[in-house]
Amino acid sequence: MRPKPTTSANDTILLSHGGGGLLTRRLVKDLIVRQLGNSILNELDDGAPLKIKEKDAVFTTDSYVVRPIVFPGGDIGRLAVCGTINDLVMMGAAPRFLSLGLILEEGLPMADLERALASMRAALRGCGAKVVTGDTKVVERGMGFGMFINTAGVGFRVRGADTRVANASPGDAVIVTGPIGDHGAAVMSCRAGISLRSELKSDVAPLWGMLAPVLRCGPRIHCLRDPTRGGLAAALNDIAEASGTGIRIVESAIPVRKEVRGVCSLLGLDPLNLACEGRAVVICPRRASGAILQRIRSHPIGRQAKVIGRVCKGHPGMVILETAFGGERIIEIPTGEDLPRIC
Amino acid sequence: MRPKPTTSANDTILLSHGGGGLLTRRLVKDLIVRQLGNSILNELDDGAPLKIKEKDAVFTTDSYVVRPIVFPGGDIGRLAVCGTINDLVMMGAAPRFLSLGLILEEGLPMADLERALASMRAALRGCGAKVVTGDTKVVERGMGFGMFINTAGVGFRVRGADTRVANASPGDAVIVTGPIGDHGAAVMSCRAGISLRSELKSDVAPLWGMLAPVLRCGPRIHCLRDPTRGGLAAALNDIAEASGTGIRIVESAIPVRKEVRGVCSLLGLDPLNLACEGRAVVICPRRASGAILQRIRSHPIGRQAKVIGRVCKGHPGMVILETAFGGERIIEIPTGEDLPRIC
What we know:
The structure is a homodimer of 343-residue chains.
Chain A: H1 22-36, E1 48-52, E2 55-64, E3 70-71, E4 74-75, H2 76-90, E5 93-105, H3 110-124, E6 130-139, E7 147-157, E8 173-176, H4 182-191, H5 208-217, E9 223-225, H6 231-243, E10 246-250, H7 258-267, E11 281-284, H8 289-297, E12 306-312, E13 319-322, E14 328-331
Parallel strand pairs in A: 5-6, 10-13
Antiparallel strand pairs in A: 2-7, 3-4, 5-7, 8-11, 8-12, 9-11, 10-12, 13-14
């Protein structure tokens, strides 16, 4: 059952919502606990007690400063939950506990906060994770951002999983689980005021549902990496550098929606550098790639998964693109100037 | 050995430091890992692997938006580490793993970031905790804050410790571990441009060193709470409300520095509502209070610890101050309007 909105159209965030007094309490109880409540969070203590049996835990954090806070296909709340869940999944871990740090701008419509919280709630569904502790701060009006969110996460490693980027090995297949660049293109086009007749939407989604069967049932994956900031180019360079291997990808094999190509040519961007928020790069032994692709494609968000290249011994630390015209080009790690505040 | 500064006077944060590309990598490796590095953090993976034996873990988060980012007695880096360590200690846990989420403003002098990181490093010393994972974002110039920091933390409960605010029991003694309001008064006077001849400094400090022997060796404490946002007034009201008891405190017994009283009378503030960042309220059986006070006072930051009142059956949920003039006054939870952005 979805909780009914508790806020009226005129309610906004006041500085005193961040003062630690009565108004902070009410905000937390009436809005945050109402949307995200569970037996641990509801204690509203300084922290959350976690019962952990002997396990390999994974701990991660990310802050989200995306502008605008609502974009085609998602919002900052969904992004924050998915981003942290996906970081845990990339480490081979089942997401379990999340913290929520809100930094709100004075004057933020309460309805915007409620929307973000409701999105978080929806994104958490089916992931086995919950928000167990949090903190709310308010800063003065005029900073022009609405809200920033930090989510830290704790998960537990799937038995036997070892998905570090250093594990890539010559001969491995390089899989991408869907079209790349949707998130970056959706946010950038929204910000540039480009309205496309077509339906360009962020791919922001939690990856646990798609990758849990692969992690749990094998065959064994060598590496997992989500191509977020810096896009596929940064993810593949990370893998090549950490593993001391070379990576060759085939341009014609890389799934890119035509809407994303359109935005890229309008704004002078490269799809390889655009962030995804619901995709993974999966590196696995070539013999296993068929079975793994099949599992990934059986999930709704993995239907367009493809093998896009291979890991090789040559040119260690380098990523080479085999172009559609039979040429080759080095894919460098982007400098980071293209795309501020897309996540 | 303290790492030498790696930045020159003219270096500032650029938007591309937050883009996830080469410049982000360099910032992380040259500055953050250099200051806070350890075997887990240095892996620079999407998250940090934690080895946990079967234990009661505690998970907490806080964002820090203090303005200005450097204030008498500390800075935002020290505040962020101490705040999260102290939240874990208040839950009866030994601090162990921290995450670090940086939100930086474009144009921030690199030296300011380095200073904050060095403060974090110094505050972590002797606490048994380290930063094991992190994230860096950059937002556009002109937002006027310099940096926000989020730290989440994982700690492990000391065997037998149960320090929830609901545990206060009639007859218990109420101890405060030092003078109250130093942090709030230092930040507010700095912001108001009040220069005091005297040495008014924030009390920001990690509480693990002082409270570890108390938690580990007994006698048993009933509750712990750090009077941060909302000050002693909010902390005591939290305890009274959660435990369904009344609390009576004696005005003349509450340690308040005369410099803090001075700032309060100038700015129209109440010391009871001012944040502390290196103090704790300790509730314990009256018979045990002597032994506990002795342990606390044996630590440098606990020398001025005092019993300031008692828990009673009457007026459940209410905090009563016995004034210096023999009267009584209800101490309410502050509404939060007084003190924006003190932590």
